[in-house]
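Quick one before lunch.
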Amino acid sequence: MHDLRGFSGAGNIPSGGQAFSECLAWRWIGELSATGLIPVGTIPFGVAVGDFNEDDYLDIVTADVGDNTVSILLGDGLGSFQPQATFPVGTSSYSVAVGDFNGDDYLDIVTANLNDNTVSVLLGKPCDP
Ligand SMILES: [Ca+2]
Ligand SMILES: [Ca+2]
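Model of the calcium ion complex:
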């Protein structure tokens, strides 16, 4: 984990900070041009990332307001993603976040549902063999 506290100071950037920023910018540009547009649910409003299938490659989850679903796109580590898998959540799920909420070491998903005044929690679990 990189310590980014040096960037928040008033113009006090450590000597190694500039190279780190340039590296990140290059990676973002490369990923965008290789991947293009990937279909998800209707009106994807929130997005978060995590490794949902534990293959060490980051995956994407979107909160789809129009469908009341989340869409999960499994990444291959090279900037491509499998077609979406969707899961129902509450009404008007505008935002999404990830974390291990029950301490079982599997990544979970939470959405904030505007019209329900609720959150939806989707607990991760191992896939069937
Ligand atoms: Ca993954
Ligand atoms: Ca969990």
